[in-house]
């Protein structure tokens, strides 16, 4: 693939991957205005965020087998069109229940792009380059938490919250156009793939039965759930406990997100010398240490605002190394059913992340400990899964090698 074509493809894949995060972050500043206009409470409006998370989690499992059977473009046309229509309808809602329903449909449409982007990386690029490509995608995805809340706040304040969905509609139309004219046919339809429920479930079990998949899918999902814990808990920690203003919080959020972006690009450079397995092991060790320091410092009252920001920054910088390498390693064993594997990976990541976000809210005790404690638990759990999973992978590989040698001996005897 030529340089210009490669750049355009990665830009489209990054845009498809960022649909979900952008749709979440951009409308958050408009919650009070939405509640006022629709004559309800902010708590009720927040259910539209919950319905979006449900749609993303369930929708990815639906699209996986469909992408493997019909190729990448046709499901993308459907998903992006559904997202576009739901976004346009959100502009005209007059009840919060309608908004909740439309956000569910919006997620069911948008998640097609999230699944297709990961599967396409596996289709187009050599396995050894997948981690580098995922690092590049992080550059596009990582911009979302930097600019989306600020942009959404500006639009809501100056034009009204409805125009947030106008912008999302226009963005989805632009992406849909790019998919039609630029996105290559990376995988032809495979009509041998059955869409019967039994065959779909069997396909997912076959993916789950691969040690490399469940090791790195669990490793990456647990590590990224620490990010979800931070996103869920940081508004309370910074604005309520440390008394920073909304504007200051926005700058803190952007600074920490910038660390995530930079580290993902450093990962691409390190991959020239080190393997994904080596990088992810060191990254998770550093993330676990920073998580433990955060939790212990919070528990003993040793951290102030700046030290809290510093250790969260280190924690999420490690995520910039963990995400691309865990994604590449978990999808590496699959080619024919990359869509199914990609969907399952995304569903696991979103499911664990949603559960973690909920736990931070449920365990709120007027301190930063629920956020920092869960961040520490997530990183330690991820590192533990990696160590145990690597042993299982090596053990399975040794059994396979013995079986192959035995079969060769039998065939030549």
From TrEMBL:
Pfam families per the UniProt record, alphabetical: MFS_1
Biological process (GO), any one: xenobiotic detoxification by transmembrane export across the plasma membrane
Domain Major facilitator superfamily (MFS) profile: 9-391
Annotated signal sequence range: none
Main localization, broad class: membrane
One Gene Ontology CC term in the entry: plasma membrane
Keywords annotated in UniProt: Cell membrane, Membrane, Transmembrane, Transmembrane helix, Transport
One MF annotation (Gene Ontology) recorded for this entry: xenobiotic transmembrane transporter activity
Membrane topology, as annotated: Multi-pass membrane protein
Subcellular location per the Swiss-Prot or TrEMBL entry: Cell membrane
Transmembrane portions of the chain: 45-64, 76-94, 100-121, 133-155, 161-183, 213-231, 251-270, 282-303, 309-331, 343-363, 369-389
Family listed: Belongs to the major facilitator superfamily. Bcr/CmlA family.
Name this polypeptide is given: Multidrug effflux MFS transporter
Organism whose genome encodes this protein: Paraflavisolibacter caeni
């Amino acid at each position: 693939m030529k340089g210009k074509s490669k750049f355009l493809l990665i830009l489209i894949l990054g845009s498809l991957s960022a649909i979900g995060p952008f749709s979440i972050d951009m409308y958050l500043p408009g919650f009070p205005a939405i509640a006022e206009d629709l004559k309800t409470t902010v708590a009720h409006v927040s259910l539209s965020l919950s319905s979006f998370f449900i749609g993303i989690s369930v929708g990815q499992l639906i699209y996986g087998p469909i992408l493997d059977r019909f190729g990448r473009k046709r499901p993308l046309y459907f998903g992006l069109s559904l997202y576009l229509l739901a976004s346009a309808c959100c502009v005209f809602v007059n009840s919060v229940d309608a908004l909740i329903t439309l956000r569910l449909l919006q997620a069911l449409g948008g998640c097609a792009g999230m699944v297709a982007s990961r599967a396409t990386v596996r289709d187009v690029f050599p396995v050894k380059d997948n981690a580098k490509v995922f690092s590049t995608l992080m550059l596009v995805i990582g911009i979302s938490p930097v600019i989306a809340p600020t942009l959404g706040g500006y639009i809501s304040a100056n034009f009204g919250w409805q125009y947030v969905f106008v912008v999302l509609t226009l963005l989805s139309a632009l992406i849909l156009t790019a998919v039609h004219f630029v996105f290559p046919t990376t995988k032809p339809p495979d009509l041998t793939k059955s869409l019967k429920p039994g065959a779909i479930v069997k396909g997912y079990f076959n993916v789950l039965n691969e040690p490399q998949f469940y090791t790195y899918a669990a490793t990456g999902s647990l590590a990224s759930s620490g990010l979800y814990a931070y996103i869920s808990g940081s508004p309370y920690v910074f604005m309520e406990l440390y008394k920073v203003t909304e504007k200051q919080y926005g700058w803190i959020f952007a600074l920490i997100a910038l660390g995530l972006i930079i580290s993902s690009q450093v990962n691409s450079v390190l991959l020239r010398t080190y393997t994904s397995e080596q990088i992810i092991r060191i990254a998770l060790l550093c993330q676990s240490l920073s998580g433990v320091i955060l939790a212990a410092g919070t528990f003993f009252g040793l951290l102030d605002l700046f030290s809290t920001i510093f250790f969260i920054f280190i924690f999420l910088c490690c995520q910039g190394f963990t995400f691309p390498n865990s994604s590449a390693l978990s999808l590496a064993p699959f080619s024919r059913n990359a869509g199914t594997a990609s969907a399952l990976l995304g569903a696991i990541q979103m499911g664990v992340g949603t559960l973690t976000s909920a736990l931070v809210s449920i365990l709120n005790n007027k301190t930063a400990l629920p956020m920092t404690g869960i961040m520490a638990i997530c990183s330690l759990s991820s590192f533990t899964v990696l160590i145990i999973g690597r042993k299982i992978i090596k053990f399975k590989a040794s059994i396979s090698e013995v079986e192959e040698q035995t079969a060769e001996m039998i065939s030549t005897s």
